[in-house]
User: Fold these one by one.
Assistant:
Number 1:
Amino acid sequence: MHALNKWLIDNSITRQVFAKKINISTATLSRYLSGDRSPKQSIMKKIIKETKNEVTPSSFYSSQNKNIFNNEFLKKHLLGIEGLNKKEISSLLDRADSIVKQNQNNVIYHSYKGKTLVNLFFEDSTRTKTSFELAAKRLGMDVINMQIETSAIRKGESLLDTAMTLNAMRPDILVIRHSLSGTPHLLANKVKCSVINAGDGKHEHPTQALLDALAIKNRKGKIKNLKVAICGDIIHSRVARSNIKLLITMGATVNIIAPSTLLPNNNLLGARAFTNMQQGLKDADIVMILRLQLERMHGSYIPSAKEYFKFYGLDRNKLNFAKKDALVMHPGPINRGVEIDSELADDINRTLILEQVELGVAIRMSVIEHLLNNNNLNTIQ
Ligand code: CP
C-alpha cells in the first residue's frame, strides 16, 4: 500500500478531505495512489511533500482551513431531526466518526478559537450539557454556561429578552434545553447566531438521536434494514420522537413498545406499536430503553414501578425475545430496577450506555463544526 494511503487510513482522513486540503481533485489523488504518475509536476510536489510527513496529523487537524470535511448539512440551526434527509444526517455522522479517533488521542483542535458557545439549560442535564461544553472546548471555542438559577430570569426577565440580551454579546452558537416544545424554534427566529436544540419538552432531542445512530453504526456497521425496538415511556419522550424519525429516514424499521397509557394514540411517525414485550422485541437488532419521564406526567400512567418492571423492565429473560446478538441502549439517566435490570445495565458486552455518552462528544463537535462552517447562510431552518 502507498505510504500516503496508509497515513490517510491511520489518521481517519478521507481522500476527499485530503485532496481538498491540498487543492487537488479527489480523482487526481486517487490516480496518484493507484500508481499513475501522469499528473502535473506541481501537483506531484504537493503530494510528495505530504507523503514525507512534513504535515503531521495534529497540524492537519488544527489547520486554519476550516472547511476540511465534506459538508452536506447546509443549515443554520439544528432544531430537530424532522426535515433532515439521509445526506444531511450522514454528513453529521461521518464527520463525528472521523473525530472519535482524534478524541481518543486527546487531539485539541484550534480552528475555532475566538468562537463562543452559550449553554442555556432550563432543565436539568448531565450528559448533554457537559458534552456540549467539552465538544466546544475541544474545538478551541470559549464556552459560557448560563446559570439560570442566578440569572436575571429570576427577576422576571422573559426568555425572549434573555435570548436577545445574549444575542447582543454576539455568541456564535446558542444551545438550549427547555421544557416547552418549540422554544429553540422561537429563539432561532429572534437571534443572529446558530441555535441547537438540546431537548425541547416532549418534542425533539436531535443530538441524542444522532449519537444513538453513530453508536448503532459503529457496532452493527449499518443502520439500513436493522430492526430497532424502543421500549418505555414513548408518549413523553423527545428521544423516542427524534430516534424514530432518524432511524426510519436511514432505512431501519422501528417498533415502539409500552403500556397503552404511554403510547401515542396516533401519529406513530412510521413506527409499529406494541403493548407486549415478546411481540415487540421479536427479531430486534437493537433494544432502546427509555426512562419513565415522571416530570412530564400529570396523574398516574402506571400502577407502580414494581408492576412496570415486571411487564416492561428489560432483563435477560425479556432480552431473549430479541435477536441473539441484540444490543441494549439507553439515553440515560437510567433508573435501575424500573426500566432496566441493574446487572444487565452494567454488562458492557450487551449494553452501549457509556459508549453512547462517549460518542455524544464527537457528535456535538460535528454539529458545531457544521454550523460554524455554515454561519454565512441566511436560511432559518
Ligand atoms: N440523555 C440526556 O439527554 O441526558 P441528560 O439529561 O443528562 O442531558
Number 2:
Amino acid sequence: MTYNLLKGKKGIVFGALNEHSIAWHVAEKAHAEGAELLLSNMPVALRVGTLGILAEKLGTIVIPADATLIPDLENLFAKAMEYFGSPVDFILHSIAMSPNVRKGRKYDDIDYDNFHKTLDVSALSLHKMLQVAKKAGALNTGASVVTISYIASQRAMPGYGDMAEAKAMLESIVRSFGYIYGKEQQVRINAVMQSPVQTPATSVVPGMAAIIDHSALTAPLGNAGADDCANACMALFSDLTSKITMQTIFNDGGFSAMAQ
Ligand code: NAI
C-alpha cells in the first residue's frame, strides 16, 4: 500500500549495491511514495553491483561518489541540484565498511589504519556529506536526512568489531549536526537503529546467521526486515515527522528493550 507520502519531494539515496541492500528497498519505496530520486554509490560499486538496473527501473540516474572524498561530494551535490533544478528534500546515508571486519581482524588485534578507514567510511562520511551539502545550499528548509545504525553502538557485541565505534560516532554526528542544521535551517537528521538483515555488508560479519536468529527470537515482534526499514525511512522523510530530529529510532521489533 502506498500513501503518496513523498509526492513532490526530491531525494538522494546513497548505498544501494544490489537488491539485498537496505538502500535498494528505500529507493524503491520512496519512488512508490511519489519522490523524484537520484542514486549514488562508489565508482567501484557501480561495477560490482547492480545499481544501474535500479536506476533504469526508477527512471533516474546514478552519480558516482566516494562519500569519504570532499571533491566527489561537492560534484555530487552540484550535479544533483542541476538535475532536480533545486535543492533536495531528503537524503538516505546507508553506507558502512570495516576493513578489519572484512579481513577477520578480532577486536583486540585491530589494525589502526583500517580502524581509521572504518570510521571515515561508516561515520565521518555522514559529517562530510552534511558539511558539503550545507555549504552548497543543497538541502531545502525542513529537509530530512536519515542514516542507519546498529545496536552494537550502545551494547557490547564483539563480533561487530570496530563498526561498534563507527556506529557510536555516527549517532553522535546525528545529534551534533542535527542541532546546528535544525537551528539554522529546520533540517532534520535521524538514525534508524535497524534489526540485523542479510545484505552485502553483513555477509562478512562472523556468525551473522546466528545473530539474526537470536534477535528474531528475542524481539517480541521479530526482526524488522529491509522493507520495514524502508517504511521507517518513508515516515522520517515525510512531513508527518517534521518535529523529529537528532534521534536514534529503534526499528527492531522490541529487541533493544529486552533483558535478553
Ligand atoms: P550494503 O553493503 O548493501 O550497503 C553498504 C553500502 O555502503 C554499499 O552500497 C557500499 O558500496 C557503500 N559504501 C561503502 N564504502 C563507501 C564509500 N566510501 N562511499 C560511498 N558508499 C560506500 O549493506 P547494508 O546492510 O544495506 O548496509 C547499509 C547500512 O545499514 C550500513 O550503514 C549498515 O551498517 C547499516 N545496517 C545494516 C544492518 C544489517 O543487518 N544489514 C543492521 C543495522 C544497520
